[in-house]
Design brief:
mainly alpha
């Protein structure tokens, strides 16, 4: 192939001079760039398709559990659960696809698991009293803090650590408000249950923040400031 290209260059130089040689080089470079971009796009499309298919398969396998063990589930329950599971899995794949070390991927997984469980528990049994209790809407604010923080952080590990720490504090604030005003005290899970459930989510989000911070330190060059 090298010999063939050299012969083409020699022929163009002899027949058309330097202009012909430059035209050949421009044409060849354009073809190479186009081919590389086309191959890259095909590879990304193939990898994305495989990732989405994998998430869909895992979601279907998880939904087999309630299908076989919880006959009381309605089709709407399966749709909501499937949407939550698939959306969470897809978000994880899209975020970690760009790379990141093990601590970063673990941090993303813990944060998404915390958000998934928070929504799931809130919709199924409720954290502060019954699921239709108005106080449970405060947890939408917790998720809003987390999502807003992610957009501001733009997935950078040190900024993500701050976003998840803010989410953890928002979760703790909801628990303080609930206990201060006695919200959900007269119905399950009661005061102790509210404390335990909120403490669980506080630990999840705080743990994710620590993992993001550690991931950022691993990526910081020697001698540079870690930023947190």
């Amino acid at each position: 192939m090298t010999l063939c290209f050299r012969d083409l260059c020699t022929e163009e130089l002899e027949n058309r001079g330097r202009r012909g040689l430059m035209a050949l080089w421009a044409h060849t470079l354009t073809e190479l760039i186009y081919t590389a971009l086309k191959e890259r796009r095909s590879t990304l499309a193939r990898n994305t398709y495989q990732s989405v298919l994998g998430v869909a398969i895992v979601t279907a396998l998880i939904l087999l559990i309630p299908l076989l063990t919880a006959p009381a589930w309605t089709p709407g329950d399966f749709v909501r659960a499937g949407a939550l599971l698939f959306g969470t899995g897809l978000a994880f794949v899209l975020v970690v696809r760009g790379g990141g070390n093990f601590a970063y991927r673990s941090a993303v997984g813990v944060a998404l698991a915390g958000a998934l469980f928070l929504v799931w528990v809130n919709l199924s049994v409720g954290i502060i009293g019954e699921p239709n209790e108005g106080a449970n809407l405060m947890y939408m604010g917790v998720l809003a803090v987390g999502i807003g923080g992610v957009f501001v952080a733009r997935l950078r590990p040190q900024e993500m650590a701050r976003a998840l720490l803010a989410t953890s504090l928002a979760q703790a604030l909801v628990a303080v408000i609930a206990l201060t005003f006695g919200l959900g005290a007269g119905s399950p899970p009661g005061v102790l249950g509210v404390l335990i459930l909120n403490g669980f989510f506080v630990l999840l989000f705080a743990g994710s923040a620590l993992l993001f911070r550690y991931a950022g330190r691993e990526q910081t060059p020697a001698g540079a400031s870690p930023g947190v």
